[in-house]
Specification:
Layout lengths: L13 H4 L9 H14 L3 H11 L7 E2 L2 E2 L7 H10 L1
Antiparallel strand pairs: 1-2
Helix pairs in contact: 2-3
């Protein structure tokens, strides 16, 4: 037995990508929505990637009348994870 194509096993997936979003209230929210979309399409590899990215972003917090910027939870960790992805 051998594989003719790994397209459905790893890498890009057009049908899953059609459900991905690129805007939201925060980068963490975008990652969470995309993880849910990937899970619904059975792309657990994409789900893991989005959930991993989600952990890098702080949830924006309201400070009085202003929102504090989102930023990374840890710049060193974020750099390492992003470079490895």
């Amino acid at each position: 037995m051998f594989l003719l194509s790994t397209r459905d096993l790893a890498g890009a997936d057009r049908t899953a990508a059609e459900d991905y979003v690129f805007t939201g209230h925060s980068l963490a929210e975008v990652c969470e929505k995309n993880a849910d979309a990937a899970k619904a399409r059975g792309r657990f590899d994409h789900e893991r990637m989005f959930r991993t990215l989600r952990t890098l972003f702080r949830t924006p917090q309201k400070d009085g009348d202003k929102w504090r910027p989102e930023g990374f939870s840890s710049d060193a960790l974020a750099k390492n994870v992003i470079l490895n992805l």
